[in-house]
Description:
Blueprint: E1 7-12, E2 20-25, E3 30-36, E4 39-46, H1 51-61, E5 71-76, E6 90-95, E7 111-112, H2 121-130, H3 144-147, H4 150-157, H5 159-164, E8 168-174, E9 180-186, H6 189-202, E10 211-215, H7 221-229, E11 234-237, H8 243-252, E12 255-261, E13 264-269
Parallel strand pairs: 3-6, 4-7, 10-11, 11-12
Antiparallel strand pairs: 1-2, 3-4, 5-6, 8-9, 8-10, 12-13
Helix pairs in contact: 1-6, 6-7, 7-8
Amino acid sequence: MSRISPERYVTRVTVGEPPRRLRDTLAGEEPLELRVGGRSFAVTMRTPGDDFDLAAGFLVSEGVITKTEDLVAMRYCSGVGDDGINEFNVLDLTLASGVAPPDDSVARAFFTTSSCGLCGKASIDAVRTRSAFDVRGDPLRLAPSLLVALPDRLRAAQKVFEKTGGLHAAALFNGRTGELLVLREDVGRHNAVDKVIGWALREGRLPLRATILLVSGRASFELVQKAVMAGIPALCAVSAPSSLAVDLAEESGMTLIGFLRDPSMVVYASTQRVH
Length: 275
């Protein structure tokens, strides 16, 4: 049985018809504990798959690493379930010599959610001072005709969503050509974005200049923060951004677009890039 999209028996009830018992495909959700040098760093609820990308992206988002060479190794720790099979839910990360491990103010020995993180002006200041990449000076120009075509490309590439209807997606596009570079799916928007950023780190692509990050839901503060930390100059969402997300995008010089649905969009920050 797939851990990414496990099946369960459900009962479908339709008014005027007898109930029907059938198998349904669900979006998988399991905890993943991240350890750095054997020390617990974070536990996140995620859809299994692309765990190495998720771990690497999370370290980038937290300002621990900025380049491929900073992360020496990743390996699953032993841990079996009731059936005696390794659940692959604990991942140990080894940083390069000279790379400072996350301190107590960064390490998160609790479950991360889409609402985790600091709030307010202090958090915006923290992102500005911690990010190794400047997105304000990115010369990317965004054509509206290219932008409105991206949601359909994202949707067409969501293979697991097609089966389950229950996953978020984050996709990275070439900002000049619209080429889909990578797409990742997860029960959490923040995890999907970390998986994209982790893929980029492992491919040696950071900072992600001249790229567009598109997310399938709303744009929260945390998603803007993650994009800034990876050097992404434009974040688009098919739904609305939060007020703090707009504040951070304006402060960082990132283009933030919401309600991206052919043939229109709403530009909330750094409008000058869109023409």
